Amino acid sequence: MLEASLPGPEYFVVGLTVSDTAVRPKITATIDGDQGIGIDELGSITRRLTRQIDEAYGEDAAYSLEVTSPGADQPLVSPRQYPRHAGRMLSLKMADGTEKTGTLEEATADGVVLSEVVKEKNKKKTLEPALVPFSDISEAKVVISFK
After folding, report:
1. 53, containing H or E segment
2. What's this model's pTM, rounded to 2 decimal places?
3. How does pLDDT run along the chain (147 residues), one tens digit per residue?
4. Containing H/E element for 68?
5. Most CB atoms closer than 10 Å: which of 78, 80, 138, 140?
6. CA-to-CA distance for 141 and 143, rounded, in angstroms?
7. Under CATH, to which class is 79-142 assigned?
8. CA 142, CA 125: separation in Å to the nearest integer?
9. 89-94/64-68 β-pairing
10. Which CATH number fits domain 3-68: 3.30.300.70, 3.40.50.300, 3.90.230.10, 3.40.50.1000?
């Protein structure tokens, strides 16, 4: 139902949660796009979803619907989210418990090419770009910088 509410193939679902409150459950749909997503698209998706829920469960169904985009501080959860962040710094938590920080050079079908920044004797050194497989990443966040 949710995918059918999206305005085009460039948009995709990042997350969907339904609270377990029986009285008035809250449905939260997090949507992103290959080039990001704007307020107009989110409004359109909200209207479409509301119509579909009303048709399926009746207009008297008690629920709260929130359609949102991932915030800047939210982790990247889909491989489709990476390409538009090329050139930005990423902070990666790896499946083995280690962490990596570096510039996202590109995203591939298998993972990300990262120019990792490491500290050596109080200096920062940038390593040659290397592929980090998605399967090795447990969490990825864009490092927000105000330069």
Report:
1. helix 39-57
2. 0.84
3. 677 778 889 999 999 999 988 788 899 999 999 999 999 999 999 999 999 989 988 878 888 999 999 998 899 999 999 999 999 999 999 999 999 999 999 999 999 999 999 988 889 989 999 999 999 999 999 998 876
4. strand 64-68
5. 140
6. 6
7. mainly beta
8. 20
9. unpaired
10. 3.30.300.70
Beta 111-120 vs 11-18: how paired, if at all? Answer: unpaired
Q: How long is the chain?
A: 147
Edge-to-edge, what's the strand order for the sheet holding 64-68? 11-18, 26-33, 64-68
What b/e readout covers 88-120, taking b as 16+ CB neighbours within 10 angstroms?
ebbebeeeeeeebbbbbeebeeebbbbebeeee
Quote the CA–CA distance of 111 and 109 in Å, as a whole number: 6
Residue among 103, 105, 109 nearest 135 (CA): 109
Closest among 31, 21, 30 to 64, alpha carbons compared: 21
